[in-house]
Specification:
Mean pLDDT: 71
Shape: globular
Oligomer: single chain
Structural class: alpha/beta
Low-confidence stretches: 1-19, 169-175, 177-192
InterPro entries: Glc/Gal-6P_isomerase (IPR006148), NagB/RpiA_transferase-like (IPR037171)
Pfam families: Glucosamine_iso (PF01182)
Protein name: Glucosamine/galactosamine-6-phosphate isomerase domain-containing protein
Distance between the termini: 27 Å
Domain Glucosamine/galactosamine-6-phosphate isomerase: 26-150
Order of helices and strands: HEHEHEHHHEHEE
């Protein structure tokens, strides 16, 4: 599996960062985005898998001043209630445990309605509208600009998804953190 991942990474042009302490590298990059003295909301996108477990301890260390304009967006959220283990927002809130209340209003969440799957298109539209109400900075095409997007792509499908999603000319703006058997994509200070 490692060879498959490495060959896919090579094919799509990501830069890999091998780091003994990848948590420290991730923390430094999150701090660099949050320390911009911007009055505008700063969006950090995150995926599921082990990303909530990696991200939560770093968020717990941040001061209230640093998180004052931070907003967290689950980039591949599922149509499930927050209590479901498939919910990326719910997983992050669970991992934040004692600091959950500090971040409760900083994470974009899908509705808690019981019939999420039956109302899929409606829920997707509401989710998009919630993001727009947070007033993200937009690129020329009207898409939100994120400070960092963190995606766990241990799975081949996530690599294929990224290959499709990212234009060739923009791929060099991304780098990969290797942590154990997982790899994490970080995209810094540019739009997705």
């Amino acid at each position: 599996m490692t060879n498959l991942i490495d060959s896919c990474l090579l094919k799509i042009g990501f830069h890999q960062v091998f780091c003994e302490n990848s948590n420290e590298l991730l923390k430094q990059n999150i701090l660099s985005v949050l320390n911009t003295n911007s009055t505008q909301n700063i969006f950090i996108g995150f995926s599921g898998g082990s990303m909530p477990q990696l991200l939560a301890p770093l968020l717990n260390e941040l001061s209230n001043d640093l998180i004052s304009n931070l907003l967290l967006f689950p980039v591949d959220e599922r149509l499930v209630p927050l209590q479901n283990e498939e919910s990326n927002a719910g997983s992050l809130l669970k991992e934040l445990s004692t600091n959950k209340e500090r971040f409760e209003n900083k994470i974009l969440k899908i509705s808690e309605e019981p019939n999420l799957l039956e109302d899929g298109p409606k829920m997707a539209s509401e989710f998009e509208n919630k993001l727009r109400l947070m007033h993200p900075k937009l690129d020329d095409n009207g898409f939100p600009i994120f400070g960092i997007i963190l995606i766990n792509f241990k799975l081949k499908r996530n690599i294929n998804y990224l290959t499709f999603l990212l234009p060739q000319k923009k791929r060099k703006k991304y780098f990969v953190i290797i942590k154990g058997h997982s790899r994490f994509l970080m995209k810094k200070l540019s739009h997705f």
